[in-house]
Design a protein that fits this description.
Shape: globular
Structural class: alpha/beta
CATH class: Alpha Beta
Distance between the termini: 9 Å
Largest sheet: 4 strands, parallel
Strand content: 5-15%
Number of helices: 6
Mean pLDDT: 96
Low-confidence stretches: none
Radius of gyration: 15 Å
Number of strands: 4
CATH superfamily: 5'-nuclease
Helix content: 40-55%
Strand order of the largest sheet: 3-2-1-4
Oligomer: single chain
Number of domains: 1
């Protein structure tokens, strides 16, 4: 299973030639891996739509994926533990959504496909990258 971050979806949907969006394209074409969409990621992607028409187009593409809930009480508590663990290592996580995404992936043993350097420190806590 691979959770695809908004950083990849945004590039992919805009046709940007980035390595992570090319990887997503290949994964979608082969169907070899189960790709997941997170509810918070869906919100981030749709927030960037410039029109209702674009939003409908994006929803059509994303609706083919299983959408998982990335939050909840257990993940929230674990995320704060991860936050403090990274603080002890000298890393401050500035985006709460990224903290929840990384924690969910660690807890669910799900790889993350991303193009966001803010996820790099989470590798020390067990986050796997796709």
């Amino acid at each position: 299973m691979i959770l695809v971050d908004s950083s990849v979806w945004i590039d992919y949907l805009r046709g940007a030639a980035e390595p992570a969006s090319a990887r997503l394209d290949a994964l979608l074409a082969t169907g070899e891996e189960t790709l997941l969409l997170g509810d918070l990621i869906l919100m981030e992607v749709l927030r960037g739509c410039r029109s209702d028409r674009e939003c409908e187009r994006v929803l059509k593409v994303l609706s083919t994926l299983e959408c998982v809930t990335l939050g909840g009480p257990a993940i929230a508590v674990k995320a704060t533990q991860h936050y403090r663990a990274l603080l002890r290592l000298g890393v401050t996580v500035s985006k709460s959504v990224d903290l929840l995404i990384a924690t969910w992936c660690i807890e669910e043993r799900c790889a993350l496909l991303h193009d966001d350097r803010d996820f790099a420190p989470f590798e020390k806590l067990g986050l796997r990258f796709a």
